[in-house]
Write a structure and sequence with these properties.
single chain; 6 helices
């Protein structure tokens, strides 16, 4: 299915609200995936204070058995949609979708730095990407956006929309939420399975480093002195 233009880059906030409601109705929170042989990690490096709205996006794929990196694709562009809390998907998804289109092999499960359904309209960046690309996604966030903490679950309007998961001793817990085509229980199990002694699971850790390296390389290039 071709991606509707409004799903990527709505013309204004009113359109973005309508699109989030439309896409949110398509989010699935039950397991619908097959064999997981290739994992994916997605992350974007950006500053909300950057007037140019430049984003540095990275998609990294890893072998599910060895966790060795299979492929890294990056994309740098100027986001058309401004930084507005709760609408991160419209700022980051165009660059990530462009990177996705250039992957030689698409992952069977995608881990996204950000929220899944733990979002006011159930459409954090992980859910947004999942619906856009029709791929199972998991949101791996570092902080809470909505809801109340009850034990190890984050509850919103009577529903468990995320779980608190620590992958390393003495680290703040991650906020793990279903993105699309996966249950909360399966999302937590996969994140725990991919712990490697670091704060982040292997796929988002790899994507985080790739996006950061892309940004640093770009900044170093733009700040380099002119030649003779």
């Amino acid at each position: 299915m071709a991606i509707p233009e409004d799903w990527l880059e709505p013309v204004d906030l009113a359109t973005a609200k309508r699109v989030q409601a439309e896409m949110g109705e398509r989010v699935e929170t039950e397991d619908r995936f097959g064999a997981i042989n290739l994992l994916g990690g997605a992350d974007v490096s950006a500053s909300r204070f950057d007037p140019t709205r430049r984003v540095w996006a990275a998609l990294v794929t890893l072998d599910a058995g060895t966790l060795c990196v299979d492929e890294t694709v990056t994309e740098t562009r100027l986001a058309r949609f401004p930084y507005i809390p709760g609408y991160l998907g419209f700022r980051e998804s165009p660059a990530l979708a462009a990177a996705w289109s250039r992957l030689n092999r698409k992952p069977d499960l995608l881990f996204v730095d950000g929220q899944g359904i733990a979002h006011p309209r159930r459409l954090g960046i992980a859910s947004h990407l999942g619906v856009l690309l029709d791929v199972p996604t998991i949101g791996v966030a570092k902080s809470r956006l909505v809801g109340e903490v009850v034990g190890t679950r984050i509850m919103l309007r009577g529903e468990a929309v995320a779980a608190l998961v620590s992958l390393r001793a003495r680290s703040n817990p991650l906020h793990i939420s279903p993105g699309h085509r996966i249950s909360l229980e399966s999302a937590v199990a996969w994140v725990q399975r991919l712990a490697t002694g670091h704060k982040l699971p292997a796929p988002t850790r790899a994507a985080h480093f790739a996006a950061g390296a892309l940004r640093r390389a770009h900044l170093a290039e733009t700040m380099a002195p002119d030649g003779p």
